[in-house]
Specification:
single chain; 94 residues; alpha+beta; 2 strands
């Protein structure tokens, strides 16, 4: 889930630092979900509420992570997310 990158200069006296960088390529639908949500003038909280109304209890933070590509979703979650957005699953897939 995380990749490690080495930062710092190449001086022999400097100590290397390792910085964890979170992957953002975990799913390809995040951009589409954000676009569809914004087209419907929904906040991330609104979308989380709609998802709860169709049986998928998620938080605003989960919506944010999906949109950023940091969280993968299952096929069942895809159908629930599409229902929450009121579009066919094929539209969410892009």
């Amino acid at each position: 889930m995380y990749s490690v990158i080495l930062v710092g200069n190449n001086s022999p006296m400097s100590r290397p630092r390792y910085v964890a960088r979170q992957r953002t390529d975990r799913n390809s639908i995040g951009i589409t979900v954000k676009r569809l949500r914004q087209q419907q003038d929904l906040t991330q909280e609104d979308l989380a509420g709609r998802a709860a109304s169709v049986g998928w209890c998620i938080s605003r933070d989960t919506v944010k992570r999906i949109e950023r590509g940091e969280r993968e979703i299952t096929d069942i979650e895809l159908r629930l997310l599409a229902a929450a957005l009121r579009v066919p699953p094929a539209i969410v897939l892009g």
